Amino acid sequence: MINKVIILIIGFLVFTTSITIAQDIDASKVDVSALSDAQVQKIITEMKKRGLSENEALNLARMRGMTNSQISLLQKRIAEVKLTGGLSTGKNSTQDSLLIKNSVLSTKAKIDSAMMDSKIFGFSFFNSENLSFEPSVNVPVSDNYILGTGDEIIIDVWGASQQTYQLEVSTNGDINIPLIGPIYLKGITLKSAKARIKNKLASIYSDLSKQNAKTFASISLGEIKAIRINVLGEVFAPGTYTVPGTATLFNVLYLSGGPNKQGSFRDIKLIRNGKVISSLDVYDFLINGNPLVNAPLMDDDIVMIPTYINRVKVAGEFKRNGIFEAIADESVDDMIKYAGGFTEKAYRSSVKLYRNNGKEKTFAEITPENADQVFMAAGDSLYVGKILDRFTNIVSIEGGVFSDGDYEYKEGLTLHQLIEKADGLIENAFLNRGIITRFKPDYTLESLSFNVSDVVNGLSDIPLKANDKVFISTINDLREKQSVSIWGEVQKNGVYSYAENLTIADLLLLSGGFTEAASESTIEVRRRLGYEVSDKSSDISSELFYFNISRDLKLDEEGSSFVLKPFDEVSVRQMPGAQSAGSVELIGEVMYGGKYNLTSEKERISDVLKRAGGLSANAYPEGATLVRKVRLTREEMAKRHEMMEKDSTLNFSDLDFENVSMHLQDILNNHGSKEDIYLRDGDVLRIPSTLQTVKISGEVLNPSSTVFEKGRSVKKYISMSGGFSFNAKKGKTYVLHANGASKATKGFIFFKKYPKVTPGSEVIVPKKPERVGMSPQAWIGIGSALASLSLTIVTIVNATN
């Protein structure tokens, strides 16, 4: 009803006697409140177009039967739209259904995604979310538009005479101009219609045809007709579609979803009055961008989509891979064009054609010379591979030259010439031997060695071949990476690169100098034995040297002349009594948490807790843990420094950490007991608040956490987690308490005693070890052994008898 309302009201505003619009609608039943902003705006536009004031238009509506209440509401709606500019977001601002002469246009059919095949070229053209061929009535109408029944012709005469006509092409194909009579327009273009109408108007407006005319006429198309198009054949949604008279083939193909999996994209027929008037090749538009293939439609046209002709699979190094449709006399060359041509990696010299000839499969190799002479058949497949990943004119040189890399190979190039191209040898190049890696005729590799010095000095030379790779080593490449290290009371412990004539004082300077606790009188150098000595069997693995050095890094006479060698280790000892007891940290439920300095090396846990005011009311001493720093060995530290040199993003400490399990309540009750251990520098004592949960993990059906309940057994907690799994090792179930201590299940004959569960603990069920079955050979061995044993027993028994 709402869609007819706008037509009715606009009809009220038109006073040309030759037009009748919506005469069958009762004006008193019009629901003005249901009008959208867009519809009211259209009424306002029509009023302006006709030169009517608002009061004049409303009076015309009243004369047609509209009640006063309807008139009042319409007046209010017009005022609202004028105020908001038609941008209201209220309930009446919904978009109108698109109407053409009382006809609702068809919308795009919903296509089941399971029916789609994106591999078929052109398939997404009519089903793309980003590309719409939905018909529109707001597009300009060209002079080539074919007029038909239902089209509205607007004739405006101005100048010496003024008149406006709104005329509709009747079912007879004509319009009737008062005082002129009928003019037949159906089936002719808008351009021809304009000429025909102006010619007829001249009979009553004689001034129109004069050279110095004072009367003028403008002829335009108002509302266009709606036409019905039948879409048949291999289409996703066959049926009849209502579209504007301006619609084209692409419009109805878009609405119907286009050809389905069996449909043709190359021979879509447009049938009019029982005759095929055009055939649409979608490829012509997709590949060549030819707009002329998109033919205009007329009422009752039939769009027929036949089954596809020949389909060809295209794969490999083409720009487009997929399934293409080939028509008669199309060749491999055409398919390559449809596929967008070759990629830059394509092996263009050979396109492989796989064909099914009805009995068996055949294969053909297509070259660029005959690609336009081999025509496609149904079921063909085309494939093109990649070019070989190798060069035909390249050699390379790496290692001890100034400019290593790839060079162009030319016939006659020698090794001496290649070294000269690479700007010669660097200073530390290894001159005794170099290697050429070369491909043999069967493309297996072989190595050729040469004396680098002889080649450079012109005493020998080697002709090179394409793809040769030359490697010249350096002295450093053949030598273990040389370094020295320093440990102890220096600012920066670690490993340093070795350099000739490096002294102890130099290394101390590189390491940041002494710490305050360093002893100047105990500088130790450990030197590993050279290969000349270590080659002989001996209990001695290294040499030790001792020196004195002052804080200003001045050596004694002996130390001044001592030069470090690769892999020397320098140790700087600490002064007796310089060691600080350090500090510890208390975290959690203590009265006064934080860091505490140790007064001596024999200060116990209970001592520090007493200084901290004891535990708080919420403390859970059974869950207390002690985290202790552990200094790494030199070997561990050296390994970490080596990793840091390889990857600068790594950042390791020289310390690691371990958890020390403890029973804090026993410690507090028995000061000085064996569990009341001495604290060390860096210790962290954590006392949690009261814990309320128990975790069950491992081989149970539903690993989870649950609320702790006093007296609840291990088996009960496991049962609450679904029970043991099939792979559970029940007898090895253990409990990990909050303080880090663990208790295992004990067994005696067929009885098991599970450990006690405490708040914050974790019940862990381990997995059974995997059993490795015996191989057939093992079973055969056992059988042979049993047979031999049986034979021996029989022999002994017989001998005894």
Structure description:
With 801 residues, the chain is α+β, with helices and mostly antiparallel strands. A hairpin with a 5-residue loop joins strand 35 and strand 36. It has a five-stranded mixed beta sheet with strand order 9-8-12-10-11, covered by helices on one side. The termini are far apart. The chain is built from 18 helices and 39 strands.
Strand content: 25-35%
- Mean pLDDT, nearest integer? 81
Oligomer: single chain
Overall SS class? alpha+beta
- How many strands, what sense, and barrel or not for the largest sheet? 5 strands, mixed
Count of alpha/pi helices: 18
* Helix fraction by DSSP (H/I, runs of at least 4): 10-25%
Question: Largest sheet, order of strands side by side?
Answer: 9-8-12-10-11
| Cα-to-Cα separation, first versus last residue | 121 Å
Q: Assign an overall shape.
A: extended
Counting DSSP E segments of at least 2 residues, the number of strands comes to 39
User: Uncertain segments of ≥5 residues (pLDDT<50)?
Assistant: 1-7, 12-25, 86-99
Radius of gyration: 49 Å
Structure in a nutshell:
This protein has 18 helices and 39 strands.
List keywords for this structure.
single chain; 801 residues; alpha+beta; five-stranded mixed sheet; 18 helices; 39 strands; 21% helix; 26% strand; disordered N terminus
Q: What is the topology?
A:
Layout: H1 2-12, H2 37-50, H3 54-63, H4 68-84, E1 99-100, E2 103-104, E3 152-159, E4 163-168, E5 174-177, E6 181-184, H5 190-201, E7 215-221, E8 226-233, E9 239-244, H6 249-256, E10 268-272, E11 275-280, H7 282-288, E12 302-305, E13 310-316, E14 322-326, H8 332-338, E15 351-356, E16 361-366, E17 381-384, E18 394-399, E19 405-408, H9 415-421, E20 429-439, E21 445-450, H10 452-456, E22 469-474, E23 483-488, E24 494-497, H11 504-510, E25 518-528, H12 531-534, E26 542-547, H13 557-560, E27 569-574, E28 583-588, E29 594-597, H14 605-611, E30 625-631, H15 634-646, E31 655-660, H16 664-669, E32 684-687, E33 693-698, E34 704-707, H17 714-720, E35 734-736, E36 742-744, E37 746-748, E38 751-753, E39 762-765, H18 776-800
Parallel strand pairs: 8-12, 13-17, 18-22, 23-27, 28-32, 33-39
Antiparallel strand pairs: 1-2, 3-4, 3-7, 5-6, 8-9, 10-11, 10-12, 13-14, 15-16, 15-17, 18-19, 20-21, 20-22, 23-24, 25-26, 25-27, 28-29, 30-31, 30-32, 33-34, 35-36, 35-39, 37-38
